[in-house]
Q: What sequence folds into this?
């Protein structure tokens, strides 16, 4: 299948990936050849084959509220934790004044 | 480098229990041997981190308990290596990726907890293809692992570090993870035993997710008996993983010597194509004949959708990977790229800087196949074909087949750099292994021959949760091959 550089740029945006120009070129080529190869599955008559994705359904635990659903306290998982909240690093777009120096 | 101080976990365990060997001495020699393997002219690069003095106290405790004749677990004092995508709280968990850097998990994987409870010493974390995406360990963000049998060649992947560590005699046991063959193919390339359990047999809690519906943790060992022992330690239900099945764990060692007399061994014609490399085909056919000699009923079968396994696998795995790897955004883990001017910029720049080429390729392919307008044609079709492949196996087992025998890999270990620039050729390395993951079946690879100094792996696949029969067949073939010398230059 044909994949344009602009398609790769769009998908990279969805995937939140910054790519260099040479990476974009290479990925356009790779994605075209690999997705072309993957299209062999479209030759298969899935209806006639009796496909049934239910046979591979993911087992889920019962949806019951329990007292302790984690192996450890959630605060122990946080690099920084204050007053019941995760403290996140300061990100560029946010107003530095709005966050404490802890972040 | 001197030869290993053991041939198997069970032999080592006996020496420790008889006090012919002390845990502290075994630990010291293991750590020294790992360091030596990394300091050689062509370093093995099997380990990404190695535990230091923190294990000394534990080794002393185990020695005291063993001196007193206490039962301190089935792996008491045994050095074990763990693939670096399995969380440990005392060593970093990098997944072989720059994006995680020196990340240390605040909690431990269930399998690590079980190993420690069984008395094992986790001596280090092993190298892998970044986020377990690869078939050669060349995609490690740090350095490619080399094959101990021929250091110009790859050890396979993605659990190449674990397989190389066992094959080089650095540790008698290691854990890997297997999403499409990542335990079995490196085991075949390095000449050791690699076991992928049934999906749900072993908890994935603490295994960093690649493709959640396919991932499974499994042992790599020197022989089938050690793999069976290790499986018994790590298997079982876990409330922290809803996909860990609540089914009984049998004693996998109990029926190991029962032989194959009366077992029906299916040999699928699709795994022995006319153009299969003779270095693989000849020893695998000889192994089939050997199974017949041992009393098995060999039956040719057909698994007709095998042709579509590679595209189906990569469609499903990449889609799941693109979703699972969305969490590496520079905020919660490891690397954070400097200089971004917006929140989105932090995400994009961190991911662009932190991920390697193959991970980016798979994220792109997965995002593409999940995107609007393509979902049904790609991801949806992949899931449908997956169910057809599972149906092929169901029919074979329903028709009376007990285990299926195939080659593990279509080739011998290839040279470093030989396939790294050809992703489709690299993906085809997984041709015979991805089907067990797609159908959620247990499978094991064991060495069946040497060709030109390189090992050939044979694979048994069994029905869901029927690891016991699979291990029984593998043990019988292993024992028979060991009773004469391995066939060479077939």
A:
């Amino acid at each position: 299948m044909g994949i344009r550089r602009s398609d790769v740029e769009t998908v990279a945006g969805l995937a939140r990936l910054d790519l260099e120009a040479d990476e974009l070129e290479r990925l356009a080529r790779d994605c075209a050849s690999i997705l072309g190869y993957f299209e062999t599955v479209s030759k298969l008559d899935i209806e006639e084959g009796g496909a049934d994705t239910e046979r591979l359904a993911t087992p889920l635990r019962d949806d019951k509220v329990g007292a302790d659903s984690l192996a450890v306290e959630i605060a122990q998982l946080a690099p920084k934790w204050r007053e019941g909240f995760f403290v996140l690093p300061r990100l560029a777009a946010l107003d530095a004044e709005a966050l404490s120096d802890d972040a | 480098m001197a030869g290993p101080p053991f041939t198997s976990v069970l032999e080592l365990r006996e020496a420790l229990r008889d006090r012919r060997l002390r845990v502290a001495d075994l630990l010291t020699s293991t750590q020294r041997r790992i360091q030596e393997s990394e300091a050689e002219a062509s370093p093995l690069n099997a380990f990404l981190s190695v535990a230091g003095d923190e294990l000394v106290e534990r080794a002393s405790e185990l020695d005291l308990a063993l001196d007193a004749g206490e039962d301190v677990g089935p792996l008491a004092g045994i050095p074990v290596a763990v693939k670096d995508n399995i969380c440990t709280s005392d060593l970093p968990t990098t997944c072989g990726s720059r994006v995680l850097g020196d990340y240390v998990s605040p909690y431990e994987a269930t399998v690590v907890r079980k190993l420690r409870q069984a008395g094992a010493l986790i001596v280090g974390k092993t190298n892998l293809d970044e986020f377990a995406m690869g078939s050669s360990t060349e995609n490690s963000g740090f350095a490619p692992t080399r094959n101990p049998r021929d250091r110009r060649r790859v050890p396979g992947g993605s659990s190449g570090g674990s397989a190389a560590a066992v094959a080089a005699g650095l540790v008698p046991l290691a854990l890997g993870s297997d999403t499409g063959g990542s335990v079995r193919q490196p085991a075949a390339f390095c000449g050791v035993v690699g076991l992928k359990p049934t999906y749900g047999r072993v908890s994935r809690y603490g295994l960093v997710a690649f493709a959640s519906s396919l991932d499974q943790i499994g042992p790599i060992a020197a022989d089938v008996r050690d793999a069976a022992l290790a499986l018994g330690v790590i298997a079982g239900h876990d409330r922290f993983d809803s996909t860990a099945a609540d089914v009984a764990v049998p004693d996998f060692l109990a029926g190991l010597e029962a032989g194959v007399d009366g077992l029906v061994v299916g040999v699928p014609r699709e795994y022995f194509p006319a153009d299969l490399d003779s270095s693989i085909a000849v020893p695998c056919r000889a192994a089939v004949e050997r199974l017949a000699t041992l009393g098995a009923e060999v039956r040719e079968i057909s698994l007709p959708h095998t042709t579509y396994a590679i595209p189906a696998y990569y469609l499903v795995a990449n889609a799941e990977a693109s979703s699972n790897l969305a969490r590496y955004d520079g905020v919660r883990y490891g690397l954070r790229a400097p200089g971004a001017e917006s929140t989105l910029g932090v995400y994009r720049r961190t991911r662009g800087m932190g991920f390697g080429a193959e991970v980016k390729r798979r994220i792109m392919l997965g995002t593409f196949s999940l995107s609007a307008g393509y979902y049904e044609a790609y991801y949806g079709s992949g899931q449908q074909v997956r169910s057809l492949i599972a149906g092929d196996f169901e029919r074979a087992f329903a028709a009376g087949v007990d285990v299926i025998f195939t080659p593990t890999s279509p080739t011998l270990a290839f040279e470093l750099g030989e396939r790294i620039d050809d992703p489709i050729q690299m993906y085809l390395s997984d041709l015979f292994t991805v089907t067990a993951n797609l159908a959620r079946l247990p499978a094991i690879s064991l060495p069946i021959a040497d060709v030109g100094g390189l090992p050939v792996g044979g694979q048994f696949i069994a029905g869901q949760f029927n690891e016991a029969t699979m291990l029984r067949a593998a043990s019988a073939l292993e024992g028979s091959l060991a009773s004469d010398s391995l066939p060479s230059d077939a």
Remarks:
- The radius of gyration of chain B is 21 Å.
- Chain B touches chain A through 63 residues (CB under 8 Å).
- The mean pLDDT of chain B is 95.
